[in-house]
Amino acid sequence: MNRKEFIRTGILGAGALFFMQSCALFPFGHDEQEKGIKTQKMKKSTVIIGSGYGGAVAALRLTEAGHKVTILEMGLDWQKSGEKFSAMKHPGNSAAWLRTRTIAPFMNVFPLRKFTGALDRWDFDHVKIWMGRGVGGGSLVNGGMAVTPKREYFEEILPQLDAELFYDKYFPLARKELQVNVADEKFLNECKYYKFSKVGEAEAQKAGFKTVRVPNVYDFNYMEKECRDEVPKSALAGEVIYGNNHGKNTLDKNYLKKAAETGNLEILDLHKVESIAQNGDGSYLLEVTVINTQGETVAKKEITTDKLIVSAGVMGTMELLLKSAAEGKIKVDDKLGKKWGNNGNFMTGRNWVKAFSGGTGLNHSTIPVGAIDNWNDPEHPFFTEIAPLPMGLNVATTLYLMLNRVPKLGAAHYDKEQGKLTLDWDRSNTENMQKNAEYFIRKMNDANGGTRSHLLFHNGWGYDVCYHPLGGAVLGEATDQFGKLNGHEGLYVLDGSLIPGTVGVNPFVTITAVAEYCIENIIRLDFS
Ligand code: FAE
396, 453 in Cβ contact below 8 A? Predict the structure, then answer.
């Protein structure tokens, strides 16, 4: 088919093209695209930018209430595309967003073909931030740990919210919709893939720490079948940060699926919103680039909408709003960008763990189920995930993702000259985290032997590893009490940006619960 025929066919099938989910099949080359690209103008009643937790919750509640919704997602619709996710040992197309080498926290020795993969990483001077790309956002690549924050800490960081209402209504609702479940203890004891967790827990207990079982959105019934070789393996085959082909209840299988079933949801993938401008009549104009799976521009769109929900994840939301403001397209106040934090993320590890009694095992499930809860220690408060190292090697290493308090919060800015987002964040922001890590590793080694994993991170200290960026558009500060951006009718922020830099545990249950609360009130007040 030549290009003319392609366009003719495209015009005949304009409806289908409009709803086309993936632009991977666009047949023309880069130069031709650039020349032939015309900007399409269109109007949509309600637009959500991003299909992670905040966006998915908003989509379900709005569509259920009868509103037509369009989600613009820069990543791929993996389910529709037919592409498969890849395991950590064999990184493929899903392993990185438009990179030629892997971007895991370590061991990035694998070359890649450039593709709109599911995992992205933004590097700043003192912190590297990982995030999910694709329909389902972070749910595609995260470890699925579904932890409800401690009530006292939730009250401390978000005093503007009614904690009773959250613990009675919004947290249970979030857990139900996200399909949270807990692994059976007998299974964990018997399954060889959880030796790393059992060893990690036993050592922590020996060092005097309290361990806790952690709920997850991975379907443990499925995992038990994996263990018995009855179904294709996913968590037990090293799949996680490059996506899971089975087992994990990602947002495209719950919130987004239900929203699509209403018939009111349109998801446009590979649609990147470049900027937001406010028109004279108060509506919003979105400048959108449509890309193919090589990252090449295949179309441009200008989409006008009266109601805009920005759910691009903390870094995406900060970039979009601060950049649009720096370019004079929207006006924001100085509260936007403030109270950014890394949720106290600090990665570390120990070597020669039980080295002479079989180590942590050759095979690790990718789904963490254990944690060390030292939050109530006034001197060294932390919550630590006992993380797997699913590389198929018995490296006798345990890996820990520590979550600490964030006494010194940072801030996000947009540097117009350099054309990029910047962060006020340096080693002083992670000082307390480093002290906790030193204390934790010392205590573990004193009780159990072993050494700090000097070869990982910076001599064993991963102060710059961040999986949980939070804050920047704090609820009730940069927004009103339900997420409406200050001074902007019809423009809402619904994602991790609403939470002021820390929540003390893995954050997606809280992001989901806060989004449920906000959208319920937004619909009541602004969509009637
Ligand atoms: P998010 O899920 O990041 O979704 C934002 C979406 O917006 C993405 O799909 C983007 O592609 C899209 N987007 C961004 N910019 C644009 C644009 N300009 N135009 C169009 N689309 C755009 O946002 N949390 C837990 O609670 N438990 C865990 O076990 C856990 N493990 C993690 C492991 C890894 C490797 C990573 C990276 C994160 C992990 N997290 C975990 C964090 C969690 O996934 C994250 O807090 C949430 O996904 C954030 O949800 P949001 O709704 O804020």
Answer: no
Cα(140)–Cα(143) distance, integer angstroms: 9
Whole-angstrom CA distances from 15 to 37, 290, 299 are: 19, 17, 16
Is the Cβ–Cβ distance between 115 and 100 less than 8 Å?
Answer: no
Residue whose Cα lies nearest atom 31 of ligand 1: it is 142
Angle CA(470)–CA(467)–CA(390) in degrees, nearest 5? Answer: 160
Query: In sequence order, which ranges of 126-239 are alpha helices (DSSP H)?
Result: 151-157, 163-165, 171-177, 185-190, 195-206, 220-227
Give the model's pLDDT for residue 16: 32
**Do 348 and 441 contact (CB within 8 A), yes or no?**
yes
Ligand 1 pocket (Cβ < 6 Å) reads 49-54, 72-75, 130-134, 137-138, 141-145, 241, 272-273, 311-314, 316, 320, 467-468, 495-496, 506-508, 511
User: Does the reported pTM lie above 0.70?
Assistant: yes
The verdict on whether 385 is a catalytic residue reads yes
Q: 451-465: per-residue pLDDT in tens?
A: 999 989 999 999 999
Reply yes or no on whether the pLDDT at 17 is more than 70.
Answer: no
Domains and CATH numbers, the chain: 18-29+42-526 (3.50.50.60)
Q: Helix, strand or coil for residue 485?
A: strand
Q: Please give the helix or strand (H or E) that residue 513 lies within, else none.
A: helix 508-526
Selecting among 203, 239, 319, 385, the annotated active-site residue is 385
Span 214-239, mean pLDDT? Answer: 97
The protein residue whose alpha carbon is closest to atom 42 in ligand 1 is: 468
pLDDT tens across 383-405, in order? 999 998 877 776 678 899 999 99
